[in-house]
Amino acid sequence: MMEKKENSSESRLYTINLRREWIKTRRVARSKRSISAIKKYVGRHMHSDSIYISPKISEIIWKSGAKKPPGKIKVKVTAEDGKVRVMLPEELTAAEERKNILSKKEAAKAEKKTEAAEEKAREAMKEEAAEEGKPAEESAAKMEESAKEKQPEEKEAVKKETAAKAPKKAAKKPTKEKAETKKE
What we know:
There is one protein chain. This protein has helices at 19-22, 30-46, 55-62, 94-132, 136-165, 176-183; strands at residues 9-17, 51-53, 72-80, 83-87. The chain is of the alpha+beta class. It is elongated, with a radius of gyration of 27 Å. The chain contains six helices and four strands. The protein is 58% helix and 14% strand.
């Protein structure tokens, strides 16, 4: 029926007018018709038959029941290897999710390395204290105090790294009421 694009990876934003489609049907079939309208619209614009609609979009359409779907919906459409995914603009694609998971794993590995280095330093301090004849408890206490001081700094650095790697969400536009109060 429709040609499939091969080896393409593209992302587009669409605002789909659902009211135009569901107004033609019985009241109880409006949400179902809205889902089929999304598939039809995306199929026509992305030239594909294999379309996957995100469960979050389905939840938004069915939120008010079968009789009252939204009139319009804004969606992000991504096409990869002939498969088309329809999702909300703020949803992450599978590739973006993988990147976030990898960055979290890298942060965890870095944290484990610092903990291992701290443990080695503690053991070295204990050995030095034993050689000098000082009680090991005093040197261990000093080491723990210095480690506690370093931990918040390291955690902040890791948070900044992960925040820089994560995609930023779009800021919400102020409503008319908020905009009016800001002007006054």
